Amino acid sequence: MKKISNILSLVIAALTVMLGCETTSLDVVESPNALNPSQASVDFFLNQIQLMTAQIHSGEEGRAENGLSQFGMEPVRMQHGFGPTYRESYDPSDFDRVWDNVYARALIDIRTMNPLAEEAGQFTHIAIGQILEAYIMMSMVDFFGDVPYSEAALGGEGILNPTVDSGASIYQAADQLLVDAIANLNKDETALPSNDLFYDGNEGQWRKVANTMRLKLYLQTRLASADGFGASVSTSRINELINGNQLILDASDDFFFQWGTNNASPDSRHPYFDANYDGAGPSSDFYTCNYYMNLMANQYSEPDPRIRYYFYRQQEDFSGADVVTKECVTEISLPAWWDSSEPYCLVPATNGLSGYWGRNHLDDDGIPPDDAFRTLHGTYPVGGPFDDNSFRNVSGSGAINEGYVGAGISPILMSSYTYFMLAEAALTLNTTGNARDYLETGIRQSISKVVDFGAPLASGSGYEATSTAIDNHVAEILTNYDAGDNTDKLRIIVEQYFIALWCNGIEAYNTYRRTGQPDNLTPAFTTNDPGPFLRSMWYSQTAADSNTNITQKSAPSTPVFWDTNPDGFVD
Predict the structure, then answer these.
(1) 387 DSSP assignment
(2) Which of 9, 297, 309, 341 could bridge to 454 as Cys pair (CB 3.0-4.6 Å)?
(3) pLDDT tens across 218-263, in order?
(4) Residue 212: phi, psi to the nearest 5?
C-alpha cells in the first residue's frame, strides 16, 4: 500500500509539469525552466492515464465521488438515488467532472504519450493506453450515447467544437483499438513500464484484459441493429474469444485499481471510503438501497456469505430511532400503494440479521440526523471495517483508521464478471459452454475474491464465511436455477452478477438495460409516476454550453445504440 501511495504522490507531483505541457502553445520559445511534451516521461503519462481511468470509474475524494460507477449503481437500486423522478435524479452539471477527466485529461494524455512512446519503441505503453482508451470511450457511449470522439482531444489541430460520433462507430473504433493493442503487446519493446499500476508490466495479463473487453463489447451489442453488430456477430466473436482461452478466468488476472492509505498530499484512499468514514460532515455521503441489502440478506434461506464483507452495520437496536423521525420506524401502517413484500425503509431481519438501514429507490425525503444508524460500505471493495457484530458508530469525519484505512480496490473487470457474461451469452446466444456451469463458477469466484480480500480482518471474529455456508448457498441458488424457465434462469444469472458487481455500477447499469433483469426490482418510492427510466444520462452541462455540435437531450431517456429494447422494458 505504501508503494501505491508513493506512486500516486509522484503522479500528482508530475501533473503540474504535464498539465502545463498540455495547455502551452508549441510555438512559444522554450524555457529552460519548463518541460515540453517531448521532454516529459512516458511512464508518468501512463500512470496519469491509469489514475484517470480509476477516477472515471470510482470518482474522486472531495468531489462527491461522482464517477460513472456511482451514476450506474443508483438507477439499478444498488446505491440509493434521490429522484424523486428519473428526470430529476441528476443535473447535467453533475457530469461535468467525468467529461473533464475524459476529454481534458485522459484522452489528451494518451494523444501526447503515443508519439513519444512510438519514437522510443515503447509499444507496451501504447497498448495499455489503447486498452484504457477503449474502456473509457465504451463507457462514455454506454452512459451518454453519441459523444465526441474522432475530433476530440486532437491538441494541435485546435478543434474547439468536435463533432458528435455515433455510439456504434465509437464501439467499432474501440474494438479496433483492442485488436491493435494486442498486436502492440506482441511486439518487442525497448522498455516495459517502470510503474504499471495494474499489472507491473505483465503483457500476458494485459492481453487478457483486451480480450475480456472484447467479450464485454460483443455481449453488450448482441441486440444491436447497427452494421457490424448483432446476435450472429456476437455469437461468432464470443466463441472465438472462448476458444482463444485468453480471457480473465482466474482471480490472479483480475483487472482492478489498488488504492492506498494516504489521507492527504495526495489522498490516495478509495473515494467511497472517504465518503463513508472521513466525510466533511458527520455522516456518510451514501445510502445503500434497501433492495440490494435485502437481496443479500433475505433472498435465500441464509444470508449471502459476502454480506458482512460488503456492509458495516452501526446499529442493531433502533428503539431510539424515533428521535430522528425516520418514517420506517414511526409509520403505523404501510402506504396502500407499497408492495408489502418489499422492504419499507428498514431491511427485515428475516434470516436473523438486523440493522440494515438504507433508503428505498427514489425516496427524496429530507435527510434526518441518522448518521449513527446508516449501514456503511464495509471491507470489500472500499477498505472499510468487517462487520463483526460490534455495532460501532464509525461514520463521518474522524473515523479514518477503520478496516484497511481505505486501501480498497476499484473492481473494473474481475474473473467472476467473465463467467457471468459467459453464462448470459450461453443462455441467450447459445455460445460455447454451459450457462449453469458458468453461473456456479462466477458465484464461487466472486465469493472467494471477497473472502480472501477480507480474511485478515474477518479471521477469528467467528463471523467469517465458512466453506460449508458457501457450499450450501451455492447449492440453493443452483436448485432454484434448475427449477426455473429461461426467464427465471436469466434473472438468477443477473441477480448473482449484480451481487458480484458491488461498487461497479457501470456493468450493472449496462446489464439491466440489456437484459431487463432483475425484473423484480423494488419500485420507485413515490405515489407519482417516476417517468421513463434513465436509458442514458444527460450530456455534461459544460459540454452542451460550450460545444455548438452538442445539443442537450430533452430528457435522459434516449436509449444508446445497443439498447434496442422497447419502451418500458426497464423501470
Answers:
(1) -
(2) 309
(3) 999 999 988 899 999 999 999 999 999 999 999 999 999 999 999 8
(4) -70, -35
- 83: alpha, beta or left? (left if phi > 0; alpha if psi -120 to 50): left
Give me the pLDDT at residue 337, please. 60
Strand partners of residue 79: 288
Contact between 276 and 396 (Cβ < 8 Å): no
3-class SS string, 48-116: HHHHHHHHHHHCCCCCCCCCHHHHHHCCCCCECCCCCCCCCCCCHHHHHHHHHHHHHHHHHHHHHHHHH
Q: 344 by DSSP, 3-state: which?
A: strand
Q: Judge residue 167's burial from the number of C-beta atoms within 10 Å of its C-beta, 0-12 exposed, 13-18 middle, 19 or more buried.
A: buried
| pLDDT tens figures, 341-367 | 666 667 888 888 988 988 889 888 777
Q: Is 258 helix (H, G, I), strand (E, B) or coil?
A: strand
Could you tell me if 522 and 361 are in contact, meaning their C-beta atoms sit under 8 angstroms apart? yes
Q: In sequence order, what are the residues at sequence separation of 6 or more whose Cβ sits closer than 8 angstroms to the Cβ of residue 47?
A: 7, 10, 11, 14, 195, 197
6 Cβ contact partners less than 8 Å away, ≥ 6 residues apart: none
User: For residue range 486-543, what is the model confidence (pLDDT) as tens digits?
Assistant: 999 999 999 999 999 999 999 999 999 999 999 999 888 776 789 999 999 999 999 9
Give the residue from 172, 87, 220 showing the smallest Cα distance to 564: 220
What residues have CB less than 8 Å from 459, skipping those under 6 apart?
Answer: none
Angle between helix 415-429 and 505-515 (nearest 10): 10
Report the alpha-carbon distance of residue 350 to residue 430 in Å, rounded: 38
User: Where does the pLDDT of residue 391 fall: very low under 50, low under 70, confident under 90, or very high at 90 and above?
Assistant: very high
Amino acid (one-letter) located at 302: E
What is the three-class DSSP state of 377? strand
CA dist 25 and 28 (Å) reads 6
Q: Answer whether 328's CB lies under 8 Å from 344's CB.
A: yes
Q: What pLDDT does residue 156 have?
A: 52
Please return the burial class of 6, using the count of CB atoms within 10 Å of its CB with bins 0-12, 13-18 and 19+. middle
User: Which residues, including other chains, have CB under 8 Å from residue 130's CB and lie 6 or more apart?
Assistant: 177, 178, 180, 181, 184
Query: Left if phi > 0, otherwise alpha if psi is -120 to 50, otherwise beta: which for 325?
Result: left
**H helix or E strand, kind and range, residue 376:** strand 376-377
Cα–Cα distance between 436 and 424 in angstroms, integer? 10
SS3 label, residue 451: helix
Could you give phi then psi for residue 220, rounded to 5 degrees?
A: -60, -35
* Pairing relationship of beta strands 147-148 and 409-413 according to DSSP bridges: unpaired
User: Using 50, 70 and 90 to split pLDDT, how confident is the model at 368?
Assistant: confident
What are the distances in angstroms from CA 133 to CA 101, 136, 181, 431, 505?
12, 5, 10, 28, 19
pLDDT per residue over 321-343, tens digit each? 665 555 555 554 556 666 666 66
- Quick one: pLDDT at residue 364? 82
